[in-house]
# Entry
Amino acid sequence: MSFESTAPGFSRRKLLRAGLAGAGALLVSGTAAGCGNPLASSSDPSALTVWDLFSGGDGMLMDEMISAVSGGSGRDAGFSVNRTILDWGASYYTKLAMSAAGGRASDVAALHLSRLAAYAPGGLLDPWDLDLLAEFGVTEENFAPAVWRRAQHDGTVYAIPLDTHPFIVFYDRQVADRAGLLDSSGALAPIDSPEVMIEAGEALAAETGRSGVLFGHVTDTSQNWRLFAGLYAQTGSTFGLPDGGEPQVDREAAVRVVSFLQRLFDGRTNPNNLDYASAMASFLGGRGGLYLSGAWELPTLRESGIDLGAAPLPTLFGEPAVYADSHAFVLPHQDNPDPERRREAHRYVAAILRQSLTWATAGHIPAYQPVLAEPEYAELEPQSSYASAMEVVVLDPPAWFTGAGSDFHSRMTQPLQTALLGGLSAERAVDRMIREADTLLSKPNPVG
# Structure
């Protein structure tokens, strides 16, 4: 079916919005309405509807932050928040798109920054008023440049970052100490080359009697990509996905990274066949000294009783870079937003950002940097040990098909998994990744 214009004023974007409007109406009367209709109107501009995907421990922390800004008086208080929690993943982003396409969206919603390129260009989001945010004490200078850049599309800010959640290293301090891998302050000493990383794995394995470095990737749709993307960025190369073009990938650099991962996870010193759960279980059980995963696993690991340390992903290929994503606040498109409610939405997000020390307890790095300067944050361990990752984060390459929970992750991860399991050479794995990226680039953007 062609999406070309067939009548004056008709566009693919209008077709999308028309087609999704009915589905959006069903959403309002169905799934979302189960938590109380989040799109219900209110004469009180401070009564805001908020959509997010925070459940479990993150959900409880968000409840705590919302409670802190509800009721009372003053700059950061006086809100009545109707919060709707939706399932994480593709379903959340489909529902967000449907509500925005129908022009009847929530006042504020959460979005992974890696997904911004799929939403801002098609008119599914409204831009933030930076002057209004500044009135409530939030400015560009409050955010790390690496994160703020990704909050924009064509120079316009469409997202306000809440956090950065990077892919990092956790380690057992006692095992690492016996292996001679800690510095005089008790932190992980620099691991600054592939060879040093391999030697560290061997030293850790000697101390545990089992394995050194643990990484769970089998059947997982994102872990391989997260690790590869961070290390690939350390080579100084970019993974470009230009709209309507061909993948811009430094094949030689990518092969170097995959070849190193095959050496590191050799199936002997460091296992190459662990899934997500078994890698964590092995670390918790003392069967490895260093564990590669996301900062979001900190609450589980901290409860284990391990003398836990954490650090940014080591710089092995010359240029500091850490793969990450970021939860951010967006303004889903509304056809006729009420100016006072929009003003309150800006005030609300500013207030929540100032509560993000609470959010940091889950392992996320607050994006609002004044919180990082607070003495209470310096006392958070091991969170403060990897806060510097904020300065060098690398997100997914911007494209309509990339981002958290996307098919892009799965397509990149599959050849990497096969390579680590011994079924593909590094060269063939990289070539397959490039072909998969090219296939995605050849597909039309459904938003236009």
